[in-house]
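**Tokenised fold:**
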Amino acid sequence: MIGRNHKFLFVLLALAFLAQRGVQSQDKAQDKKPLDPAAWGKNHAGGAVPEFAHGDECLFCHRNTIGATWQKNAHGVTLRQREDAVELAPLLKANPAVAKVEGEIEYFLGSRHYVRLLKKDGYGKFDLLNAQAVLGADKKVVEWRNAEKPAWDKEGFANSCAGCHATAVDAKTRTFAAFGLDCYACHGNVSMDHSNDTSLVLLSKKNRTGKEVVTSLCAQCHLRGDGGAAKSKSTGLPYPNTFIAGDNLFQDYAVDWKRADAAQLNPGDRHVWRNVRDVAVNDESQTCLNCHQVHAADPATATQKHRRLPRAPICFDCHSQEEGQFKQVKKYDVKSALCEY
């Protein structure tokens, strides 16, 4: 009997101790001071774009894995040559005015909800057609915007789009080394010795890429902000100045963190802003890659990891808080003055 009482007393003491530790941990979290996002690492702002291994070289070894699905991946189709976007070709004949310049169109920008049309204008430059196709769920045109008088814009892509839809942008000349997103955009300037030591590659299974590095390289494109909410300090452009994966984005990229709580933000953009702030400023540990698989071709596969995570306040950016209604995802439209939709 005495032994049982001792066990019971021990359990009570243990529970009291754990409860106290929980209170202390909570108090410590509340007392935690915000981080300076620019305090770690280095950057290449204003520097020259380095010589780097292009995706064609990477495919020599990765052709049967990454290469087999890249043209179906959301990152892989952000900007494509016309011949690689056969499903979008009918768009060019869907509007009589656009059909008149069909012979000039060489590239498609976007593929899911909005599609823009481009043509080359010398090395590392695109002209952007002012006309824009809005697509429905069946990939057919719902409406055309600014298609009455199609005209080519020589500055729009370089000033706004290049940072997220091209690779290795030189901010001085506003030219790019490769259209679309090459391996360099996320894996950085990879050492050619990585074939013998894969830990040399950012985001590889053997590379212990820190949460700050992961958040910086995702945020270089996904932390977009209208009205100057996110821009390079050195160029004023709405994308980073010579960012190389592994850099500290926030040493040159000025961000208004109040944007994360802006009421007018749609749930998708709010989710991005809050997650980046949670890691960069609030020292949280969950990065984009805890939930999203970048190389998955199927959108359902790309996000399946986040379905296995325990529920947290950030979930309710997109999911309903109503009892029993969590599986309902909020419907919303993304509006972006920067991206012109």
The first strand starts at residue 79 and ends at 81. The beta strands are 79-81, 107-109, 114-120, 126-135, 141-145, 152-153, 166-170, 175-179, 230-232, 253-255. Residues 86 and 140 are 13 Å apart (CA to CA).
